[in-house]
Each structure stands twice: as structure tokens, then as C-alpha cells.
């Protein structure tokens, strides 16, 4: 154990993957619901780690994208940014722990302004700037969610009963700028982190953790699950808003998202492995009272309006800086 990070446990995962590459395929799922009566919510679904199934129960009540400023709860973009930053910090601390680096602190501020992402990592306890630079370089190369942000990742879109996934090339260019969002993710210990929104709007801390199968303690959803919940909730929120605007109907929408991660790339167990998320798919359930041309119109408009979808598919401008925090004298 170093930084309360179970390096031996991760070494066992690497060993298993090298013996059986199929164990590197991790499947994550998330669902969101937009209801005219109960608002916007998201939850994770069962995950599959190689051949091991993990069924955990975590959910988040969210602020709808159409809510007035000052409403309680995180925005869908907060979930997505939390997933990106927590993955980056977990990669940083895990990589440093493997190199015998002992951290006093590790924080990441991350912000979306409607067209670009700016982020900054502050690291405490690391002896020199060169070590910080090396660790941040590992984040940029091996963090699955961060590389998903910086490389275009297509998301297949499916809607209607029995519909096959189709290419999601329905939206070109950046969506109309929505509400800016920012949060600070703070490393606590091991694979446990917290995320809090930055700015004047209220919001409770979100808990992030790896599942028990990956040396965590199931304190909260993991980074990939936060990113998927953010996508599902963002699409569901826009579906609810645009259905009212385009058809005059307030209906309940359910959105399911899935994606896979080849952890052989993250753990450097397989140099040829793709690091970013793969096989991304978003499925929109047909709501009662809306079908045919109206359904097509609302789904296409919501997909085009989703800023989280744009984050994943378009690889927007990204800026990452880092800073070494001097140790406090005893």
C-alpha cells in the first residue's frame, strides 16, 4: 500500500490480463430519466469487469438544463467533468504510487465554457517539478476518460423499439452554448475522491471510487460511470425540453448509455491497447404518446444540443496545466 493505493492489487489485475486478454474488457452502463413530474435523475447499471459482474446501486438527482440558475443539484455537465477529472487524478496517483511517489494532496479544477475545456492539476508533496510533469504526461497518455476527451470517440445512437444502432453523425459542429460548468475534484485516499461544483450555484459533493473488484471500497460510482451518467442525463434533459418546445407535450424520457474500456491500456499491461473508451452507444426508449416523425425530430434535436455528447465525439479544445504545491513546514 502506498498513498492508500493498493498497488499489489493492481499488479494482480495486470497479471490476469497478460494471461487472459479478455479480462481487460470492462463494460459500463448508465441510465437517466427526465420526467415532467419527478425531474431529472441518473443511475449506474451493472458493470462487467472481464468475466466478473458488479451490480452496485448509485444514483444522482440532477438539475435540469432548462432550470433557472440557483436550482439545487449538479448539472449533467458536472457529472461528465467529474468523470474526466477523477479519472485523471486516479491515473496520476496510481502512476505515482507505482513509482514510490508519496502525495500530500492532488486536486484538479476543470471547467467547460461552451466550446473548450480548461483544467489545472495541483499536486502537493511531490519533490520536484520534473516529477509532476512526468506524472501529468502519464495522465495525458493513459487516463481513459481524459484521452476520450482529447480524441474523437463516436457514439452510436439508437431510438425506437427494436431499432439497430446507427452512426451518430446527426450533429455537426458545436451545439449552442449552454450553461458553463466547473468543478473541483479532490483526491482523498487510494481510489476515493470528491467533486464539488465551482462558482455561485449550489451543489453537494459527489463521491467517486473504484469498485471492490478494482481495489476500491464502493464509496461511489467510478470515473467512467460518472461520464456515462453525464451523457445519459444530458441527452434525457434535452429530450424533455425539446419535446415541450417542438410538440407541446411533456412526456417521460429514458436514456441508456454503455461503453467499454480496455484497461490493458490504462495499466500498461498491453502496449497495443486503445486507451480511450470504445463501443459507445446511447439508446433512447420511445416514450408513450410520441412516435414517428415527431420522435425523429425531437431525438435529432436533443442529440445535436447535447454538450456532453459533443465533448465525447468532437474532441474540443483542451488545456491542461499543472502546479506543484510546496509542502507546509511542520
Please give a structural write-up:
The structure is a single chain. This protein has eight helices and 14 strands. The protein is α+β, with helices and mostly antiparallel strands. The strands form two sheets. Strands 1, 2, 3, 4, 5, 8, 12 and 13 form an eight-stranded mixed β-sheet that branches. The chain has a six-stranded mixed β-sheet with strand order 11-10-9-6-7-14, with helices on one face. Strand 10 and strand 11 form a beta hairpin. About 2% of the residues have low confidence.
Outline the fold blueprint.
Blueprint: H1 7-19, E1 25-35, E2 39-44, E3 47-49, E4 52-54, E5 59-62, H2 76-98, E6 105-112, E7 116-124, H3 129-142, H4 144-150, E8 155-159, E9 181-189, E10 192-197, E11 206-208, H5 223-247, E12 253-262, H6 263-266, E13 278-284, H7 292-305, H8 307-314, E14 317-325
Parallel strand pairs: 7-14, 8-13
Antiparallel strand pairs: 1-2, 1-3, 1-12, 2-5, 3-4, 6-7, 6-9, 9-10, 10-11, 12-13
Helix pairs in contact: 2-3, 2-4, 2-5, 5-7
Protein name: OsmC family protein
InterPro entries: KH_dom-like_a/b, OsmC/Ohr_hydroprdx_reductase, OsmC/Ohrsf
Amino acid at each position: 500500500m502506498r498513498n492508500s493505493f493498493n498497488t499489489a492489487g493492481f499488479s494482480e489485475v495486470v497479471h490476469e490480463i497478460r494471461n487472459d486478454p479478455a479480462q481487460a474488457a470492462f463494460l459500463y452502463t448508465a441510465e437517466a430519466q427526465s420526467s415532467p413530474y419527478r425531474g431529472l435523475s441518473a443511475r449506474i447499471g451493472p458493470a462487467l469487469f472481464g468475466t466478473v459482474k458488479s451490480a452496485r446501486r448509485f444514483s444522482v438527482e440532477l438539475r435540469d438544463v432548462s432550470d433557472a440558475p440557483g436550482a439545487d443539484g449538479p448539472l449533467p455537465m458536472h457529472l461528465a467533468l467529474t468523470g474526466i477529472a477523477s479519472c485523471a487524478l486516479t491515473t496520476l496517483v496510481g502512476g505515482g504510487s507505482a513509482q514510490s511517489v508519496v502525495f500530500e494532496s492532488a486536486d484538479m479544477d476543470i471547467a467547460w465554457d461552451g466550446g473548450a475545456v480548461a483544467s489545472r492539476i495541483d499536486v502537493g508533496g511531490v519533490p520536484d517539478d520534473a516529477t509532476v510533469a512526468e506524472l501529468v504526461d502519464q495522465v495525458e497518455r493513459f487516463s481513459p476518460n481524459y484521452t476520450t476527451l482529447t480524441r474523437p470517440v463516436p457514439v452510436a445512437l439508437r431510438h425506437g423499439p427494436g431499432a439497430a444502432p446507427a452512426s451518430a453523425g446527426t450533429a455537426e459542429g458545436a451545439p449552442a452554448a449552454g450553461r458553463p460548468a466547473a468543478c473541483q475534484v479532490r483526491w482523498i485516499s487510494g481510489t476515493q475522491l470528491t467533486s464539488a461544483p465551482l462558482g455561485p450555484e449550489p451543489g453537494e459533493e459527489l463521491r467517486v471510487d473504484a469498485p471492490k473488484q478494482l481495489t476500491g471500497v464502493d464509496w461511489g460510482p467510478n470515473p467512467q460511470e460518472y461520464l456515462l451518467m453525464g451523457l445519459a442525463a444530458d441527452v434525457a434533459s434535452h429530450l424533455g425540453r425539446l419535446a415541450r418546445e417542438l410538440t407541446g407535450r411533456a412526456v417521460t424520457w429514458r436514456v441508456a448509455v454503455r461503453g467499454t474500456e480496455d484497461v490493458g491500456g490504462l495499466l500498461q499491461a498491453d502496449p497495443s491497447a486503445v486507451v480511450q473508451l470504445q463501443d459507445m452507444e446511447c439508446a433512447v426508449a420511445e416514450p408513450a404518446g410520441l412516435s414517428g416523425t415527431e420522435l425523429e425530430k425531437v431525438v435529432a434535436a436533443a442529440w445535436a444540443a447535447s454538450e456532453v455528447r459533443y465533448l465525447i465525439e468532437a474532441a474540443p479544445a483542451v488545456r491542461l496545466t499543472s502546479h506543484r504545491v510546496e509542502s507546509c513546514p511542520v
